[in-house]
Design brief:
Blueprint: H1 3-12, H2 21-33, E1 34-38, E2 44-50, H3 53-67, E3 72-77, E4 84-90, H4 96-102, H5 124-138, E5 139-141, E6 150-154, H6 157-169, E7 175-179, E8 182-187, H7 190-200, H8 203-252, H9 261-272, H10 278-284, H11 291-314
């Protein structure tokens, strides 16, 4: 089961917080994945198509519980995608138009409602129920082991912005993005996604996100340290090679026999241990030497080479 399916299933099992929350959840389900059409006698026909069993189950349960309406369920299996398709049809019947008004799909004059209807999102708990229903119906939550991303695909610009406002009101910064004739209301912040799912009633999903973040943090810290160590080793190897080249130049210029003892000690150490950093080179010296002391000896060698090269040019 995908992480999105786990989240949807967990949210679908949440109990309503008040007597009106089920209406808000059902309103969101119908609005996000429902299609309303006119019947031949001036009535209505409502169809809800989904590939999610949690949506089909919740839709049928709430329709029978709240609206007391007849529903027809057709289950088909896609040979290509190997998934079930659920088609729930509410045919034209005496109380269907009243139910559509109750759910905020139609207003009292029979016109379609463009945004989120106020009466189904009047209370804080009902707003949570509406967002929960929207997420169950058209939501996607990326596997937290990859990128953090939550989005809800909806129809209608006004509805998308109203839904984003509901998410903002719950502390999750949401944005709206047009996408192939529809709109995506999305949240990118891991903290905001955790907060939203926690308020909607998905503690298992929140725990998985926290665990994934902890694992990512450890991996990132290990990678950072490994990269830093590799960079240090690369710099040390480059510095050691340049020091060997400097010693070779000292010999070429005939300066090696007259070197002070401290510089000769450094040259022998570097030639004996060509791969060590200055710090490690100082630790193998007898007596041990600091990195600073060895670095100053390198500078003295460089100065001697420069002065010798200038004398040769003048001569």
């Amino acid at each position: 089961m995908s992480f999105t399916a786990e989240v949807r299933d967990e949210l679908a099992r949440c109990a309503p917080e008040c007597a009106y929350c089920d209406i808000s959840t059902l309103a969101a389900l119908v609005r996000v994945c429902g299609t309303l059409s006119l019947s031949g006698q001036g009535g209505y026909c409502l169809q809800v198509a989904t590939e999610t069993g949690a949506v089909a189950r919740t839709m049928i349960e709430l329709t029978h519980k709240i609206l007391k309406l007849k529903t027809n369920l057709t289950v088909r299996r896609s040979i290509l995608h190997k998934v079930r398709n659920y088609l729930i049809v509410l045919p034209d019947q005496p109380d269907l138009e009243k139910a559509l008004v109750l759910l905020g799909i139609l207003d009292r004059s029979g016109s379609l409602v463009a945004g989120v209807p106020r009466h189904v999102a009047a209370r804080a708990c009902c707003r949570r129920a509406f967002v929960r229903g929207s997420l169950i119906a058209g939501g996607f939550v990326a596997d937290p082991r990859g990128d953090f991303h939550l989005e809800i695909a909806v129809q209608g610009e006004q509805f998308a912005h109203d839904l984003a406002s509901l998410l903002d009101g719950m502390g999750a910064r949401a944005r709206v993005n047009p996408r192939r004739g529809a709109y995506a209301v999305y949240v990118k912040s891991a903290d905001d996604i955790k907060l939203l799912l926690s308020k909607l009633g998905a503690p298992r999903a929140v725990a998985e996100i926290e665990e994934a973040r902890a694992v990512k943090h450890v991996k990132n810290e290990v990678n950072r340290r490994v990269n830093a160590e590799l960079a240090n080793q690369t710099r040390s190897a480059g510095a050691a090679q340049r020091q060997l080249e400097l010693i070779a130049e000292v010999e070429r210029l005939g300066l090696r026999p007259g070197l002070p003892q401290v510089l000769e000690v450094f040259c022998r150490l570097r030639e004996t241990h060509p791969d060590l950093s200055l710090r490690d080179l100082g630790e193998v010296a007898d007596p041990p030497l600091s990195k600073s002391a060895l670095y100053h000896r390198v500078l003295r060698l460089e100065k001697m080479v420069q002065e010798a090269a200038q004398r040769n040019q003048t001569a």
